[in-house]
Amino acid sequence: MTHRTTASLLDHEVLLVTGKGGVGKSTVAAVTARAAAQRGKNVLLVEYESVSRAAPLFGRQELGTKPVQVDDRLWLRGFETTDSLEFFMLQQLKMRSVVKLVMRNKTVLGFFMAMPAIKSVTFLYHLWRLVEDHGPRGDGKFDLVVCDLPTTGFIMGLYGVPKMVQQIFHIGPLARVANGMGDFLYDTRRTGLVLVTLPEEMPVVETVEFLDALQDRYGVHPAATIVNGVYPQLFGGDELAALDTSIDRSHASDDVIGLLDAALLLEGRHERARRLRPMLEGSLDCPTYELPHLFARQLPLAAVDKLATALNAAVSSAREPA
Amino acid sequence: MTSSANLLQRSLSECGLLICIGSGGVGKTTTSASLALQAALAGRKTLVLTIDPARRLLQALGLQGAELEPNTPLQVLPKMSGSLGAFAESARLDAMMLDPERGAEEMVKRLLDDPNLHREVLGNRIYRALLPALSAAPDYVALELICDLHATGAYDLIVLDTPPAHNTMDFLEAGSTFSSFINERVIKFFSLVPGVGGKSNSLLRRGSTVAMRLLGKLFGSEVLPDIASFFYSFRDVMPRMKERNNATDALMRSPKTRFVAVTAPGETSLREAHHMHGLLRDQRLPFGGFVVNRVVRPPRGTDEGGARDAAAESIRAALAAHGTPAEAAADLAERLRQGADHLDSMAAADRAHVDDLRRLAGQGSFCAVAPQLEHDIHVLTELQRLGAQLIDSASRG
User: Fold this and answer.
1) Interface residue A20 vs chain B (CB under 8 A)
2) Which residues in chain A have Cβ-Cβ distances shorter than 8 Å to B130?
3) Which among B142, B23, B27 has a CA at the least distance from the CA of B387?
4) Per-residue confidence at B114, pLDDT binned at 50, 70, 90?
5) Do B24 and A22 count as a contact with CB atoms less than 8 A apart?
6) Residues of chain A positioned with their CB less than 8 A from the CB of B310
7) Does residue B217 belong to any structural domain of this protein?
8) Please, what is the average pLDDT of chain A?
9) B218 in contact with A at a CB cutoff of 8 Å?
């Protein structure tokens, strides 16, 4: 079983954006959504169960479970487990008053919320129905749904959901649901997995290991790896050499040394990204795109646009992996 | 410990359990390892425990090539004391990796001492299907294991590097989540499915038929008996589960336990740190303090009074004097200036975030700071230096 991507990154119906913690998943998810919108696609950016990180980028503090239009072609919404559970029960039982009753009963709700894997099951179900109903094969409201998801552990669980549900509910209505979710999730022309990483040793190694494990277990290939925060080259090697021969550090002032050290540090980060690139490209069977580091802790919308333009250019110029 | 020791030092010398929480990517594993090493070097028998995969922990401890046998302690000190010098030879530090899937299986086995029940539960189709899901949320399994380890008294201090849950709440509520899933009420309910429980009250049975029909519609009536017997097989272990639940809860609330919130600068991490602090307070869990990693330090020198401009000018002159063409020298000096400005502004933003957390920590807890590292730590001496830096920074107000 091999699920290899053939679609170009932004031509999927869904992109699942993940990575280890702290690598900038939310930023990359917002940038990816924005890049597709720049291409004229109608895009829904989904944030999964969290204090919203993308909403502030678009001038909003709160994010509900209803889509909010933030731009001509861009909508935002949150996914919450309780909301997705209610959605699931409504779809399966078709009895609104009964479902309301269940959702209001603390003991019963507590039982459902405590089921192992309940979060990934309800999420996948909800996403699958959303894309079937409103994606290109449904009413066409959204050409692409980009999901800002938790860390890679969640993704490993998510890809196991169809099989787990099939094992438990081998017959009956949920067996059909499990098959539908599996067809949707494992079709890499429809559903693309995007791994975000940093140009640092451990995140790169962990990304390669995670993708190996995912491929071993579920035969899934990612749609792309995105290296976030790549430092541009600010200083050439000959320039650093000229500084070395022109300035005697032992007699230089602290202020001069501060400037030299800053240059060495920034150059070191650029160099590290360059050194790690072959490691990703050599071991992964998917395109790798780089996003430049922006020298600001907080990203304004203008910066998201700038990165989206960079991503669009990279995707357009990428050739199919051999 | 003397009264001059700061709160972090006191936590390391007096506590029995330090639980490092925080989202991924903030250096939680490295922090856990460096704190454990400090405690070990101070003479306490210490264990640092991480969840699979353990690569980061092994690397931080300088054990890249080693394999960690799951759920089995590996000696770090005194075995590896060479690089640290003679004073480390009497220290005792172990590292351990928890394999949650195996841990979950062992946990269930411990609960079910009757071999018949053993077979009934472990052979259950639903249990087998749920086992990987249990390991995707390994929080409860980790707590259980620590409880056992703690009870043996083999270690003075256990430092737990919590699993990378996307939500700290998941870890803090692991115990109560498990007991909302399997409890007496749930078991009693499922015992009413025809063919599952023993003899039962027909009145009760009738009362539950509406709910039963609903569940049948939701899950499929064909699989309902299987689900019901899965829950029913836990019937005799409830008292013991409750006992263990109480034990893990008591351990989390023990006066010798501290939660350490590991974080990094940046708006998202800052918000998360406030969130963790609030959660611990709401749940009345013992907060030790913050560890703020990855803090950018400003370049040497000062940005005041045009000092950086003067430095750039002197570099330009030196470059020109040594043969760099005038235009190129001016251009390079300008870019050096910009580079330092970038770092200055990042350092200023980080400083503001650290100050904010120091205020939040207040008098009763610590706030320790570690600089952004330009490469991963992979020798014990560097890990030791990092821990010393953390302790040192925790003293500053």
Assistant:
1) yes
2) 116-117, 164, 168
3) B27
4) confident
5) yes
6) 255
7) no
8) 89
9) yes
B43 to chain A nearest CA, in Å? Answer: 31
Chain B CB contacts of A154 under 8 Å are 136, 166
Q: Is A97 on the interface with B (CB under 8 A)?
A: no
Min mean pLDDT across A98-112, A247-261, B188-202 is at B188-202
- In terms of domains, do B288 and B144 share one? yes
Tens-digit pLDDT profile for residues A292-304: 988 765 567 888 9
**pLDDT score of A74 more than 80:** yes
Question: Same domain, yes or no, for B263 and B344?
Answer: no
Round to whole Å and give the CA distance between B47 and B118: 31
Interchain contact A202–B (C-beta under 8 A) = yes
| B228: in domain | no
Q: How many CA atoms lie within 13 A of B64 on its CB side?
A: 6
Determine, yes or no, domain membership for B289.
yes
> In which residue are the tokens 């602290």 written?
A254
Assess if residue B294 is contained within a domain: yes
Domains of chain A in start order, with CATH, are: 9-231+287-317 (3.40.50.300)
Residues in B closer than 8 angstroms to A209, CB to CB, are 53, 55
**Which of B173, B130, B135 has the alpha carbon at shortest distance from B282?**
B173
Please state the length of chain A. 322
Q: What is the pLDDT of residues A229-243, one digit of tens each?
A: 999 898 988 999 999
Residue B344: give the domain boundaries: 306-349
pLDDT of residue B212: 79
- Global ipTM: 0.79
What's the rounded Cα separation, in Å, for the pair A226 and A198?
A: 8
Query: Which among A254, A296, A297 has the least Cβ separation from residue B300?
Result: A254
Q: Where residue B396 falls among pLDDT bands split at 50, 70, 90?
A: low
Per-residue model confidence (pLDDT) at position B230: 83
Backbone angles phi, psi at A193, to 5 degrees: -100, 130
| Number of helical H runs and strand E runs in chain B | 18, 8
* Structural domains in chain B (count): 2
What pTM was computed for the model?
0.86
Instruction: Count CB neighbours of A216 within 10 A.
Output: 9
Measured between CB atoms, which of B299, B314, B374 is closest to A262? B299
pLDDT at A30 over 80: yes
Q: Which helix (H) or strand (E) holds B297?
A: none
Q: Which residues of A touch B315 (CB under 8 A)?
A: 243, 246-247, 256, 259-260
The CATH number that applies at residue B294 is 3.40.50.300
Identify the residue whose tokens are 């069977």.
A285
The mean-pLDDT minimum among A81-95, A247-261, B227-241, B246-260 falls in B227-241
- For the record, the structure tokens of A30 come out as 């917002």
**Statement to judge: residues B84 and B108 lie in one domain:** yes
